[in-house]
Each structure stands twice: as structure tokens, then as C-alpha cells.
Amino acid sequence: MSSKNIVMAAAGASGLAKTYIEDVFSTYLYSGTGSTQEINNGIALGNGPANGTVLHLRADGVNGGTNNTILDSSSNNYTVTRNGNVAQGNFSPFTTGGGSAYFDGNEDSVSIPASSTITGDFVAEWFMYLTAINTVGTATIWLSNQSLDNFQLGIDGNTIGAWINGSLRVSGTVTASSLLNKWIHIAYVRTGSTLSIFVNGTRVATGTYSASVSNNTIYVGQQTPGGNNHFVTGYMSSVRLINGSNSYNATQSTLTVPTTPLTAVSGTSFLLNFTNASIVDSAPIANNLETVGNTQISNSVKKYGTGSIAFDGSGDWLKIPNNQNFNFNNGNFTVECWVYCTNTSPRQDIFSTPANSSGFNGLSIGIYNGNFELTSCWSSGSWQILWATAGAVNANTWYHLAVVRNGGTLTVYVNGTATYSNNTLNTNSLVFGTEPETIS
User: Does an H or E element contain 148, and which?
Assistant: First the structure.
């Protein structure tokens, strides 16, 4: 599946309206697993996520919190710069705890001004979950400094290696396709003059290199600026550099892969655990969320719990990296949330899924001129209104919305009451999530 995104609260017209959204569920109700209540009125918030839930946003974070501030958890506490639209969240390789950053393969990276010199023993390690392999012939992932070709660690096709001053000094062979859609642990370890590379605890390459390496700005998720700039498409978690000491032994053929988030042990130069997200997904899959514009947590306006997700009506929206769980195809599904608007006149898409090149693939529910509207988009790019209320939306009022498909019938519920039903729509290959500007 191509990389697409769920989009929430993307304004479609000029005019400011502050919108708050809380307790968002996107549930793929596989045949026979949904309860009667979930299928009949879309309300299943009381006891937590239902079976098949692929997204659950409770919005109980810290007031003003976003997902854009990435912290260095080492004692150096370096300022980490987020380049592009890196999305933080609680998707992680660990059973309990941890987080990750999602890199969309399009100008995403993070940088750290880690000015030091790597001498003696060191360990550079991280977990990664690739969703695509870079096909342009160089790196899929790099941990590198700012001076081009000084010290670069990454994957080039089926080669995993360490490029030092432009030369491939240590390399091993991996099957790139086998790295997709799973968490793997990568460690570059130097003990004395022995430099080894480990993948999931097994040494795949070893060689010698004992020289010191100057260390300017570290880039995670891309090759250094000025080079080929090949970017990661996927997730990284627990990225750590230990300088001057070692938690592993490069002369051994195996190492023990960590089962909990990495910590700042002695010699840690920097540590990125990506656990500073405020808007997090409580569903089992734990999607990472990109907060665009000024999207943030509000603790002052809320329906339940401690907060809601606030959108100020000017360039704010929430983007969720897509995966196969958001391809509902012909199955049953429920998408539901609570929504509160301070102004109901401007166009406000609560969630939207513009069409792709074939079939009926676009669906949007939002508010326009005081009405809730359900619209569809066909492959031709033309939108049509399927349903609209008659001036029923009041400002500064919480409403529960649910869009449910059960047995081929698509139904919209407002505050638990069915207000629209259609069993003739061509809903084949309904995919939640392209960016709103895809169809104008």
C-alpha cells in the first residue's frame, strides 16, 4: 500500500473556528466481532477500545502539549532539531513503555549538535521499523555527522555498513526486503580496533578501524546535508550513542538485544527515546501522530478525562501514518469521536479521506454553515453531498459523531441517533487517509 495518512480537522475554507476533538475511535469491526451497541449506534466509549480498534485518541495529555518536541535523554541534554514532519508516538518495539519517531521519507530527520570526538570503544545502536526500502541506491537509514563522508552508518541496498571518509570500511549482507514491517535492532560496536555490526543480536560484519572520528552535528534518519540526502521511510526508537565505553563486545559473535527502552548509561553521548508526545494513540497498534500547525492538547475544554485535541482553524490538522489496518475495503467499520466547535460557519473537516485513482475511495464528515455534512469523492475528483443536517449544529456544544458500515450499509449517527443510512454506495477499497489537498 502506498504511504497515505488519516487526516483530522483540516479546514477546507477560509475563516477561523476553534475545534476540539476528543475520544477518537477508528475501529475495524471484523464480521461477528462487534457488539450490538457498536454496530447499532456507534457508541462504545465506556469500556475502552473494541475488538479490532486501530486508532484511539483519548487526548489526556499535558495542556498545550504537541508531538513536535523531541528530547535528548542523556546528561548532555542536547537541543534536538526536528527537520520536516517527524511524528512522535508510543509505537515501540517494547512490550511496555518506549516510543518512536516516524520518518515519512520526504525530508524528515532529526539533528543533534553533539560536538565531540569518538575515541576508543563506542556503541551506536537503535531499533527501526522500515515501511519502505529506499530504491535510489544509497542509504535507507543514516546516523551521521555533518561533515560529508566522515562517519556514516546505514543500509545501501542489501549492504549494511560503516562508511568512513567516503570508504566502506566494514560491511555485511542483509536481505533488504526482510527488514520491512518489523522491529529490528541495529548495533555498531567498536572494542579496541575491532568494529562489528550486529542485526538482531547476530554479528553480520566485522573489521578493524581504530582512528578517532570527529563529531559535529549528528543527523538521524537521513544522509548528511550536502550528500545524496536519502531519507528513512519508517520508524526509529531508542537511538543511543555511547562514546568511550562499551555495553557490548565487538569480538563476540552475538549480543543480547535489549527488551526495554535504552537508558543513559555511563558514556552516553545522546539518547533519543521519542517519548515526549502529548497526543498519543491508546490502540494496540499505537500509531504515531504528526501535529501540524498549532494542533495541541487543551485541558480547559473537554468532554471526559483531562483534555481534548484543539485545532485553531488556521492550518491545524492531525496526520497519522497509514498502514494496512486503515484499508477497510468492504469490511465493517466504525469511526467515532466527540467534537466541539466555537464557530460552525466555516468549512471544517472533522476527518477526511480524499479519493485515489479508482472506485469510491473518498469520504469526509465535517461542519459547514451550521450543518453536519457527509460528502463522498469519486475517482474523478468531484465531491458530492450525501447527507446534511438542517442547521442542527450549535457552537460551544459537544456532539458525538459516528460513521458506521455494517453489512454494506453506511450509517451516520449524531448523539446516538441514526440520521443517515445508505446501502447502495460503492464503498469498495475505502481507505482512510489521504492528505486533504490531494483532491481540491
Answer: none
Distance CA 211, CA 193 (A): 8
Regarding pTM above 0.70, the answer is: yes
**What whole-number distance in Å separates Cα of residue 312 and Cα of residue 390?**
25
Domains defined for the chain, CATH in brackets: 5-65+279-438 (2.60.120.200), 81-272 (2.60.120.200)
Q: Is 273 exposed, middle or buried (0-12, 13-18, 19+ CB in 10 A)?
A: buried
Cα(346)–Cα(365) distance, rounded to whole angstroms? 14
Residue 236 buriedness (CB in 10 A; 0-12 / 13-18 / 19+): buried
Least confident of 89-93, 177-181, 308-312, 331-335: 331-335
For the stretch 360-369, pLDDT in tens is 456 778 888 8
| DSSP string of 223-235, one letter each residue | PPTTTT--B-EEE
* Residues contacting residue 135 through CB under 8 Å, at least 6 positions apart: none
Distances (CA, A) of 281 to 58, 109, 306, 388: 7, 22, 15, 30
